[in-house]
Amino acid sequence: MSIGRSLVLLASLAPCVVACRETRQAKAAQARAVEAKRKQEFASRIAMADANPAKALPMAMWIMPPELREISGLALTPRGTVLTHDDNVGRVYEIDPRSGILLKGFSLEGIPRGDFEAITIAGTDVYLLESKGKIYKFKEGTDGQEVPFTIYDTRLGKECEFESMAFEADSSRLLLACKKFLTKNAPHELLIFRLPLPLGDPSTMSRLKVPIEDVIGSTGWKNFHPSDLNIDPITKNYVIIASHEKGLVVITPEGDVVRSEPIPGYHRQPEGVAITRDSVLMISDEANVKPAALTLYRWRP
Predict the structure, then answer these.
(1) Please, where are the H alpha helices in 60-157?
(2) 3-state secondary structure string, 242-295?
(3) Number of Cβ within a 10 Å radius of residue 102
(4) Quick one: average pLDDT of 249-265?
């Protein structure tokens, strides 16, 4: 191709380039306006919730996009956003909980398949948990990136099925709550495994056992099957939800039950929980008749 022909071709493309750029800029401006409006509305709803502390009404309910149909665990970032993940493949997403906007998505290298059930953040490391007790460790990626990872097998998969994991910063350890016992003589208790970081030496693992009668209290539940676990950033207590019981339990690190109660609002399949430093409780629901959603409440320890 001659230089003259190249110039003509570039000139013919120039209006399209300018128009495309203007379209992108307009869409970006529109997205920023929507985000600002949602955050403003959310701030007013927080004020309303504080003015009516007796009512546990949702402050916001964000419908998730199709790629987050099976939204499961939640992990709060230092930026105030949350990381969540796909249930069947190693893919992670970031959501702004105050606007409901999906900010980015990245994958583990090769996009491994698995029954991924929980996610947590410890410093600059992200941990993703499979139901059989395997833990994937990696760094947070940028939008569209594939990140390398390592796998640690807790070897607890024959004993328990897992759906919850949290990082306890004060003791630098991961917490894994047993959802379902797989042994013949299953104990009648809530069992939380505590794995010190860095992962590697299984002999350093400890167990917190809470009698199921203490967990149930006066709720009328027959059992309690943890779907997710997180730490209250103010009290440092463990906050655990169970999809089957539609229940929420608060337990001290020593194993004392602070309270047991129904999850606020109406949830068809609550799978994830997180609490912000300014006391906002987040509950994620997988799609079940209705689309997947992230619902926010005022958290009262």
Answers:
(1) none
(2) ECCCCEEEEECCCCCEEEEEECCCCCCCEEEEEECCCCEEEEEECCECECCEEE
(3) 17
(4) 97
**Looking at residue 9, what is its pLDDT?**
35
pLDDT tens across 19-77, in order? 666 677 776 677 677 777 777 777 777 777 777 766 678 999 999 998 899 898 999 99
Please count the other Cβ atoms lying within 10 Å of the Cβ belonging to residue 95: 25
CB 269 within 8 A of CB 290: no
- Pairing mode, if any, of strands 173-181 and 189-196? antiparallel
Measured from the Cβ of residue 56, the count of other Cβ atoms closer than 10 Å reads 17
Q: Where do the H-state alpha helices sit in the chain?
A: 3-51, 212-216
pLDDT at 259 (0 to 100): 97
Give the pLDDT of residue 173: 97
Mean pLDDT value across the chain = 89
Structure tokens at 81: 């956003």
Integer Rg of the chain from CA: 22
Q: Please give the backbone phi and psi of residue 186, each rounded to the nearest 5 degrees, phi first.
A: -70, 130
Distance (Å, whole) CA 162 – CA 178: 5
Whole-model pTM: value is 0.87
Which strands form 238-242's sheet, in the order they lie side by side?
Answer: 228-231, 238-242, 247-251, 257-262
Q: What tokens appear for 94 in the block?
A: 């970031």
